[in-house]
């Protein structure tokens, strides 16, 4: 564990702030905010670094806010609660995800599909996130995590784990599942697949020996480059890498009636491909955000599954280094900032 950042004066907090798209984050000290109605103030214990944070920093997502504190895989302790908060206690450990708030009134919210809400707020994108010592959150969108003893180990579950879980649900009940891009989300999803008794086929960058070794360690029955074909057609393929060219590659190794699930929030353009690799009722679908029900379901299962994240830790003020290491693929699994 690296040495954490120096303590701040009472009543103050620190944050790594994105002031301009494409520029490094800068350290700022601020007054501690007071939680409003239905809000909690959380002292951040750990915040994992997600590829979505790179998309935010690079300006690849429309609708964000500047300046902004990135980070949405947050685990911490409640230090203060605003009026009207229920279901939480001071000192309780909580997880704060990407979906920070929904309107509750649009057709999607009424249909139980709040992940598609017409007027959402997103942690670390439209409201300040967890690359900080403290963060404000809506209590209704924070999940009790008192059963998780290690906040650093738990942080990647809050997005990489949740998105992987939702993607696996969309993949259906097939036995042969391909995972393209063996990073934070895939290495957690592989552990779920092993627990479910299904067969993981891991596709990495061609020649990425470290990622392939991790995939084998986590029970993959077949490991190869994204330019290779598995020994038998897949029932479903989940693409975590933000590379559009992987969509036709995955379709080509998919059985009839199978599904390709795009697990990222952003992807490079998908190149043209012949209709015959989509025919026979193959499907291409995307995963958008998550619902609170997804989180409750997955976080109740994760301890039973015994998921263990491969983690590289960084002090909070080295957030720029963590982002660049993620961009360059310099670590396996997930990066976690520790304030």
From TrEMBL:
E.C. numbers: 1.1.1.1
Tell me which cofactor or cofactors this protein depends on. Zn(2+)
User: Which Gene3D superfamilies has this protein been placed in?
Assistant: Medium-chain alcohol dehydrogenases, catalytic domain, NAD(P)-binding Rossmann-like Domain
Name the SUPFAM superfamilies for this protein.
GroES-like, NAD(P)-binding Rossmann-fold domains
> Can you quote a single GO CC term?
cytoplasm
Transport as a keyword? no
**UniProt keywords, alphabetically:** Metal-binding, Oxidoreductase, Zinc
Coiled-coil annotation: which residues? none
Give the InterPro entries listed for this entry. ADH-like_N, ADH_Zn_CS, ADH_Zn_typ-2, ER, GroES-like_sf, NAD(P)-bd_dom_sf
Using the record's annotation, list all stretches that form the Enoyl reductase (ER) domain.
22-337
Which GO molecular function annotation, any one, does this entry have?
alcohol dehydrogenase (NAD+) activity
Please state what class of enzyme this protein is: oxidoreductase
What superkingdom heads the lineage?
Bacteria
Record-stated family: Belongs to the zinc-containing alcohol dehydrogenase family.
Q: Which PANTHER family match?
A: ALCOHOL DEHYDROGENASE 1-RELATED (PTHR42940), VACUOLAR PROTEIN SORTING-ASSOCIATED PROTEIN 11 (PTHR42940:SF8)
Protein name, please? alcohol dehydrogenase
């Amino acid at each position: 564990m690296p040495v954490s950042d120096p303590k701040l004066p009472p009543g103050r907090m620190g944050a790594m702030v994105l002031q301009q798209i494409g520029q490094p984050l800068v350290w700022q000290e601020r007054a501690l905010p007071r939680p409003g109605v239905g809000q909690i103030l959380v002292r951040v214990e750990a915040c994992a670094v997600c590829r979505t944070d790179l998309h935010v920093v690079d300006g690849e997502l429309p609708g964000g806010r500047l300046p902004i504190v990135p980070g949405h895989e947050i685990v911490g302790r409640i230090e203060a609660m605003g009026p009207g908060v229920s279901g939480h206690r001071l000192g309780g450990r909580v997880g704060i995800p990407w979906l920070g708030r929904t309107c509750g009134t649009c057709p999607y919210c009424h249909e139980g599909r709040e992940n598609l809400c017409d007027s959402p707020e997103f942690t670390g994108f439209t409201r300040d996130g967890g690359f900080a010592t403290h963060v404000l959150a809506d209590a209704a969108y924070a999940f009790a995590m008192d059963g998780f003893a290690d906040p650093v180990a738990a942080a990647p579950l809050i997005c990489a784990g949740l998105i992987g879980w939702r993607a696996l649900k969309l993949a259906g009940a097939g036995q042969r599942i391909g995972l393209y891009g063996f990073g934070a989300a895939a290495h957690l999803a592989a552990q779920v697949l092993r627990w479910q008794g299904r067969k993981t086929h891991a596709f990495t960058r061609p020649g990425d020996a470290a990622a392939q070794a991790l995939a084998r360690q986590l029970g993959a029955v077949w490991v190869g480059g994204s330019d290779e074909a598995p020994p038998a057609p897949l029932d479903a393929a989940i693409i975590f890498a933000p590379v559009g060219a992987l969509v036709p590659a995955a379709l080509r190794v998919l059985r009839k009636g199978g599904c390709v699930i795009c697990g990222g929030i952003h992807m490079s353009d998908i190149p043209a491909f012949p209709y015959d690799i989509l025919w026979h009722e193959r499907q291409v679908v995307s995963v958008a955000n998550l619902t609170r029900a997804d989180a409750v379901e997955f976080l109740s299962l994760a301890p039973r599954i015994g998921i263990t994240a491969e983690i590289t830790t960084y002090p909070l003020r080295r957030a720029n280094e963590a982002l660049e290491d993620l961009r360059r693929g310099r670590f396996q699994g997930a990066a976690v900032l520790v304030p």
